[in-house]
Amino acid sequence: MAALKLEPTKVVGVDISNGMLEKGRIKIKKKGKENIISMVNGDSEDLPFEDNEFDALTVGFGVRNYENLEKGLAEMLRVINPGGTAVILEFSKPKLFPIKQLFGFYSKYVIPTLGKTISKDNAAYEYLPESVAAFPEGQDFLDILEKVGYKNVSAKLVSGGIATIYTGVK
Asked: Nearest 5 degrees, angle CA 34-CA 4-CA 90?
């Protein structure tokens, strides 16, 4: 619901999972925002929207799961208006002591253990640290953004380096 801080007239949430969309619809209804927010089933690599349809786009902890990262990022760029901005929040690998060590322990042992206990789905929570470790971060990710056509790219570390906010303009 962070997008609502900008007081938009329209927000569209997209997910490939109908289960996640339903959870989103429940939250939207509780907040009384059905007139502003809609939820659409869609694949990041084949978004069901026209070219240049949105002023901005955000993704939170999702691009590391794209099957084809460059294709998904290019598709995001396609649906943004010229001059529009993409903002991507993604996990990073902290570099500084002691955050690096704490995050390593937390992601390798605590997240999978809690996940197994809460959801009974072992694979989903073991996958998280693996996907974070495999994701191109920092300058490597900025280079990919530029390669697919984003301009004025930038990265800002947050939460002690546990996550990064990437931005790019069409």
From this structure: 110
Instruction: Provide, rounded to the nearest whole percent, the portion of the chain with pLDDT above 90.
Output: 62
76, two tokens: 């995001």
Query: Across the strands, what pairs with 118?
Result: none
What is the count of structural domains for the chain?
1
Please give the pLDDT value at position 109.
65
- Token pair of 154 as six digits: 């930038």
Give the domain CATH number at 163.
3.40.50.150
The amino acid sitting at 134 is A
Is 164 part of a structural domain of the chain? yes
How many whole angstroms separate alpha carbon 161 and alpha carbon 154? Answer: 15
Question: Which residues fall within 8 angstroms of residue 152, CB to CB, at 6 or more apart?
Answer: 167, 168, 169
Rounded Cα distance, 163 and 22, in Å: 27
* Position 34 in a domain: no
Average pLDDT, stretch 4-17? 86
